[in-house]
């Protein structure tokens, strides 16, 4: 089940932070870069980020999250994270499909992931996203931006 998350609820914010840390540590290992912004988050920074959060639950356990902002009919995915216990169970795919249908005034979606994070890269390509550019964020460390026109 997918439901909107209220990060002003400390219990929910803690669950989101715990899931995010577990997931992004795996990405950091894959891309060899441990300075990923979500790994620096705190409860306070999550509450202040001004993103809309949704969570995917399996038997009342938070298995995945997605967060985004909408600016001028563009939905910008800021986070898509799945707890490692729920990898390869279609959670990320379900979250992507959910947010793609959430707002009817959206005409484009943008998302970035580590260039070397092949599971995430393949997820976006499989869902019809097109690679738009690589961005160097540190010496020899790149993120890839993907877009999907709706």
Describe the overall structure.
The protein is an alpha+beta fold and 150 residues long. It contains 4 helices and 7 strands. Strands 1-2-3-4-5-7-6 form a 7-stranded mixed beta sheet. The mean pLDDT is 94.
In short:
The chain has 150 residues and is α+β, with helices and mostly antiparallel strands.
Categorize the overall geometry. Answer: globular
| Beta-strand proportion | 35-45%
Record field, number of beta strands: 7
Q: What level of helicity do the residues show?
A: 25-40%
Strand order of the largest sheet: 1-2-3-4-5-7-6
Number of helices: 4
Instruction: Classify the secondary structure makeup into a structural class.
Output: alpha+beta
List segments where confidence is low: pLDDT < 50 over at least 5 consecutive residues.
Answer: none
Q: How far apart lie the N and C ends?
A: 24 Å
| Helix and strand element order | EHHEEEHEHEE
Q: How big is the Rg?
A: 15 Å
Largest sheet: 7 strands, mixed
Rounded mean pLDDT is 94
List the helices and strands and how they pair.
Blueprint: E1 2-5, H1 10-31, H2 43-48, E2 52-58, E3 61-71, E4 74-82, H3 91-100, E5 108-114, H4 118-126, E6 130-138, E7 141-149
Parallel strand pairs: 4-5
Antiparallel strand pairs: 1-2, 2-3, 3-4, 5-7, 6-7
């Amino acid at each position: 089940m997918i439901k909107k998350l209220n990060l002003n609820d400390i219990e929910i914010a803690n669950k989101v932070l715990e899931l995010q840390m577990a997931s992004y540590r795996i990405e950091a290992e894959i891309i060899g870069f441990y300075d990923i912004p979500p790994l620096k988050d705190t409860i306070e920074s999550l509450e202040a980020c001004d993103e809309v959060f949704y969570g995917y639950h399996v038997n009342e356990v938070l298995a995945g999250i997605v967060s985004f902002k909408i600016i001028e009919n563009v939905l910008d995915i800021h986070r898509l994270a799945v707890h490692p216990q729920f990898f390869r169970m279609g959670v990320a795919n379900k979250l992507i499909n959910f947010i793609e249908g959430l707002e009817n005034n959206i005409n484009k979606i943008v998302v970035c992931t580590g260039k070397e994070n092949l599971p995430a890269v393949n997820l976006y390509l499989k869902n019809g996203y097109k690679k738009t550019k690589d961005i160097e964020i540190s010496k020899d460390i790149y993120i890839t931006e993907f877009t999907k026109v709706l």
